[in-house]
Amino acid sequence: MGNITIKQLNFAYPGQEPLFTDCQLAIDGSWKLGLLGRNGRGKTTLMKILMGQLDYQGWVASNLPFAYFPQAVTDPTAFAWDNLSAGTPQLEEWQVERELNLMGVDPVLLWQPFATLSGGEQTKVLLAALFAQPGVFPLLDEPTNHLDTRGRQEVAAYLRAKHQGFIITSHDQAFLDRLIDHTLVIERHQLVLERGNYSTYFAQKKRRNQTAIATNDRLHADIQRLHAAKQQRLQWPQRAEGEKRHNAHADKGFIGAKAAKMMKKSQTMAHRLDQVAAAKTGLLQEVETVAPLTTNQQSSYHQTLLTLEQVGITLPGRQVFTDLSLTVKQGECVLLTGDNGSGKSTLIKAILGQPVGQVSGTITLAHGTTVSLVRQHYTDQRGSLTAYAHRNHLPVDQLLNTLKKLGMERASFTTPLDQLSMGQQKKVELARSLLTPAQLYIWDEPLNYLDTYNQGQLIQLIQTAHPAMLIIEHDQHFIAEVATKRVTI
């Protein structure tokens, strides 16, 4: 397998701050490389540069035949196999079936309309088609999105067993720890390449941050001392002038000359102190920080906000689930879990009163309860952030402030919503939910596309504010931190 060599890479989208400035990098094609970094830092952009889809300045050289996940699906209503073969004509059906078998997936999925597959099934089919191509070097962009817990374990085992390298991005820390052997992190002003998995990088990053914070504290103290010394020096000539005013018998000419001399000397020393302070300011190291999030949670006189009693849902041709009962009370965070296709998102539609087929049992939303939703899919995001805020009855300044807390760069605030990265679009969806007045929050896979800093913010918010929530999520770390109750379909 070949290598990837990058020298003096520079790239910026029109009208935005540079994502890469004079970057140098050497990647071995045999590595299972985790590509990490905050949303909007350029992970997908770097993959597009490797694929030759973006113009850049610098030098990128590789003999690797890159292949990108997720592949485009041209006709979701057609069979999965027809979509795969249309995108890669040289693909053989048996090759894809082999990869599906390695993942423990029934190849019969190939002969179902692609749109009827669950999100996890679609992911596995596309991964199988990618790895069925001999000799390609995969660039895997967020393959864990829409995978359930078991699916993530199966895909992690599948990728770990591969005797080939790839580059992968994911928001799931445990998933990455199972399979990557190197990490490439796009930090604010540098690329950091290290050997080891996510936990290894994070531990080293934590140590670097602690060292940087200690250094910054010392530098800040030095800078304050220098500024105090500057002010003291600038007071010298003022003291001499005071002596001249208050001493009637003194030699005015001598004191005036002394004051002028001291003025010149004090200005020279103040300038030198400014230079030293500026040099120390330049040594200050930037440490990644996150601001706490808030919700527009409204009070309710109901103790129980949502009740499901022996609920079942039947779609044409199949029973999705039956006899599901749960409650969501004030202060509870209920995690709804289950395999892909078990009906979790369908249940949310039923709770919201949307048509989903035949519903049995009883769904009771407490009178007057307003719901704030985070959706899996938000293709209706269009136009500017200002127009989006007006459509959703949100204060523009609060929307922008929440997005800034979520790590979205100000330069992105003028970018049309449909041109934002998937992570940035998810932040817009999440910010809308946080700002919407509500007694109950229903979030469908909120961590998809969000970086680990954002995950930490959400964990802190839920642990601090204790909003009433029903959440669908598969990230085990997140579930362990926030769930007060788990219900499995």
Automatic annotation (TrEMBL):
Domain of life from the UniProt record: Bacteria
Keyword annotations: ATP-binding, Nucleotide-binding, Repeat
Pfam families, per the entry: ABC_tran
GO molecular function: ATP binding; ATP hydrolysis activity
UniProt domain ABC transporter: residue ranges: 4-213, 306-489
Keyword Secreted listed: no
UniProt keyword tRNA-binding present: no
Gene3D superfamilies, per the entry: P-loop containing nucleotide triphosphate hydrolases
SMART domains cross-referenced by the UniProt entry: AAA
NCBIfam families, sorted: ribo_prot_ABC_F
The protein's name: ABC superfamily ATP binding cassette transporter, ABC protein
